[in-house]
Amino acid sequence: MTIDKKRLNRMLNPKVVVVVGDKGPEYRWLSQLSEFTGQAYSVQLDEKEIPGIEAKGFQNFKSLMDIPGEVDLVICAVPRQIAPYIVADAVKKKVGGIQLYTSGFIETGEELGAQLQGKIATMALEANMPLVGPNCLGVYNRHLGVKFAGEQEQGEGGDVSIISQSGTHGTSLSIGAQRYNVKVRRGVSIGNAAVLVEADYLDYLKNDPETPAIAMYLEGIRDGRRFAKLLRETTPKKPVVIWRGGRTRAGARAVKSHTASLASNDAIWSALMKQSGAISADSQEEAVDVMQALVHSPRNSKRNVALIAMTGGQSVAITDQFEKAGFEVPELSAKSYKRLSEFFNTIGGSYRNPFDAASTIGREADNLAKILDVLADDRAIDGGCAIELGVRNVDKGTEQLDAMLDVMRKYRDKTKLPVLALMPEGSAMGGAAEGLVTARTHVARAGFPVYPSFSRGAAALGRVATYWAWRDEIRSRK
Amino acid sequence: MADVIASARAEGRTLLTEVESKQLLAAAGIPVAMAHLAPKAKQAVEIADEIGYPVVMKIVSPDIAHKSDVGGVVVGLKDAKAVRKAFKDMITRVQEVAPNAKIHGVAIQSMAKQGTEVIVGSTTDPQFGPVMMFGLGGVFVEVLKDVAFRIVPLEPRDARQMVREIKGLPILQGVRGQEPADIEAIESLILRVSEFIAKHPEIAELDLNPVFAYPDGALAVDARVVLTSPEAAS
User: Fold this and answer.
1) Contact A233, A275 (CB under 8 A)
2) Is the peptide bond before A298 cis (omega within 30 degrees of 0)?
3) Cα–Cα distances in Å, from A447 out to A288, A308, A452?
4) Is CB count within 10 Å lower at the N or C end of chain B?
5) Other CB atoms closer than 10 Å to residue B128's CB: what's the count?
6) A146 in the same domain as A114
């Protein structure tokens, strides 16, 4: 079928939303619409539930057909046997689209589940009606306040949009991202993808001017060839991060060639990643780490970095991790060393790159400013700067930390190079655990990619640099 | 070209013989060491006389996927007498090991000059359709699985990366005084196969194993094409 793009657009950007079959005491779906900027209604037949719905301030109807005017999005939360009737009403009502929170379909492995899914899919396909799911959490729209998890933010902006085959991971990616000040513009938990498949959502986001980057959680792909083609078309326009979960077994296929016997699912996925320039992630935290580096760093593909750690041991550890991630830690120019020698405390410190800087930076941001001034002028550094941030006194106020962040921001604005804030556990300058967690959030809100270990910061920046290098290459060929 | 596929289909076969496979590939501009079908010893000698000695003889049977496993490959046949004897021995040997295999005869081809062995192949992924593989031949592919995959269609950069992705790359670049292999020729062969596969959805699997990579050029010495099963094709 061809997806009706106008209807899909209505569904993903709804002005009128109807929740069918929400239940107390939480009234999850209606509650999640508390910040919705449009008009929301309820459809519920159960007399026991209606007072609770009305107490929440939603007008209730006995049928979808009774709703006045057009409906853009139906959120269906009824039991599976009822679902076909709701889908039939949605078809009749010519709604934008419907999402089925309802589960118990093909994922059960039961005959009945498969039959019911086939039935609703056929109804939607024949009517050309977009259907999300079933067995999904559906649509999140930041601007409009349509949410599939209560913690999702409502407001302006948008750095990344998310497609997830798992509702849990759709939630974990969006909550994880927003915790680090990465604004999720849209999200779709796609469930069993009976009608709309991965490629349909990717196609939408590819062309969505409000989606600067895309993150996905995928297990398997339906319509893989179309997906692969779309992915190749998307990555030259915007970065795509793919976290693949599960290892689908190829099954016992009778193969007659060497090639077929070696073509594991992993091998083909890895080929897809390389060919498309998508950024692969192996876990939720890797995906969020990469999103932070993408969103909170200037675009940069170069790999000569300056590393500023607080102690000698950490200056070795940070260098190991960045080199492992494919970075160079070059020596600076003679001129830089001369300037550094004028103020740098070399008793208990050093400035070769990496920097062992605690004795120089101490509690004042002034010397960090001087170091970063020198680095900004040194052409050996073209990949940016990673700084171990000490937050020992953050419980007494953030002035000191803010002064450091200002200095870091000035460097970033001047050089247009990435600046990572590394705030590892158990570091000599790290301070107490509670303070560290608060401080990381504070640093993220100030607009810096922040990581709880050197290795995670290095790996994330490495992947992002690889993407921009790939993109430079693609563009130079065209 | 379509005839080879059509006749295999008509006989209900999915495995093409080496002779058939090479006809298809040669027609697509892929460099292969041509193999000529000889149903009887007499033709085998005639072909060998014409292409020049020494020659290689291989069994031709749509029922045998791995020829060397049944003693179906003999190399370095120096004259007509050797060819005649090898033919008789091979047919007897294969009939013993695989009594139910239908035998078309043998294929005669020139002894290709030894080069660095690489493998180029394709298969059909259930999610993403046709994909291609590149690796060094022999132990590198079989034991170390040192191979690189890409999804068809390939762009020139994909072929370039595939060749450079394998751990055995230094072997192609020339170690211990060996001349480097013609990596550009390998890349171009990979891209031609990608084009060929993209044009022929009826091909399910393909092995060019080995391909000899020379300091100047590359040549597929053995080839095996497997068609999609008729149900999948219809």
Assistant:
1) no
2) no
3) 15, 19, 16
4) C
5) 21
6) no
Contact A152, A175 (CB under 8 A): yes
Fold for the domain defined by B34-110 = Dna Ligase; domain 1 (3.30.1490)
> Number of C-alpha atoms within 13 angstroms, CB side, residue B176?
1
Please tell me what DSSP assigns to residue A92: H
The question of ipTM being above 0.90 is answered as: no
SS3 A120: helix
Q: Sort out which chain B residues have CB atoms less than 8 A from A224's CB and list them.
A: 125, 127-129
Give the count of domains, chain A: 3
Confidence check: pLDDT of A248 > 70: no
pLDDT (tens digit, 9 = 90+) per residue, B123-136? 999 999 999 999 99
Among candidate residues B80, B76, B91, the one with its CA nearest the CA of residue B47? B80
pLDDT above 70 coverage of chain B, percent: 97
Q: How far apart are CA B48 and CA A191, in angstroms?
A: 63
Please report the pLDDT score of residue A252 as a whole number: 43
Q: Please indicate, yes or no, whether residues A150 and A60 belong to a single structural domain of this protein.
A: no
Residue-wise pLDDT tens digits, A333-353: 999 999 999 998 888 888 899
Half-sphere exposure of A161 (CA within 13 A, CB side): 24
Q: Where are the alpha helices (DSSP H) in chain B?
A: 2-10, 18-27, 41-51, 80-97, 139-142, 156-165, 169-173, 183-199, 230-233
Across all residues in chain A, what is the average pLDDT? 93
Burial of A41 (0-12, 13-18, 19+ CB in 10 A): buried
| Pick from A220, A228, A258: CB nearest B141 | A258
Looking up tokens 């790939």 gives A470
pLDDT over 60 at B234, yes or no: no
Instruction: Supply the pLDDT for residue A251.
Output: 45
Task: Compute the count of residue pairs across chains A and B with CB atoms less than 8 Å apart.
Answer: 85
* Domain housing A280: 136-295
pLDDT-based confidence at B233, cuts 50/70/90?
very low
- CATH number of residue A168's parent domain: 3.40.50.261
Residue-level pLDDT at A259: 82
Rounding to the nearest 10 degrees, give the CA dihedral for residues A149, A153, A157, A158: -30
* B229–chain A nearest CA distance, Å: 12
Q: Are strands B73-77 and B147-151 parallel, antiparallel or unpaired?
A: unpaired
Q: Looking at the structure, do residues A461 and A324 belong to the same domain, yes or no?
A: yes
Gap between the Cα atoms of A202 and B219, Å rounded = 41
A108 and A210 housed in the same domain: no
- Summarised one tens digit per residue, pLDDT across range A450-476 is 999 999 999 999 999 999 999 999 888
Q: What is the pLDDT of residue A437?
A: 86
Longest dimension (CA), chain B: 53
Q: Nearest to residue B134, comparing CAs of B226, B203, B207?
A: B207
> Which of 3.40.50.720, 3.30.470.20, 3.60.10.10, 3.40.50.300 would CATH assign to domain B116-233?
3.30.470.20
Closest partner CB to B226 (pick from A224, A256, A272)? A256
Predicted local confidence at residue B145, as pLDDT: 86
User: Are B161 and A228 within 8 A, CB to CB?
Assistant: no
Between chains, do B141 and A256 touch, taking CB under 8 Å as contact?
A: no
Nearest to B22 by CA among B35, B11, B13, B9: B35
Residue of B15, B133, B224 lying closest to A262 (CB–CB): B133
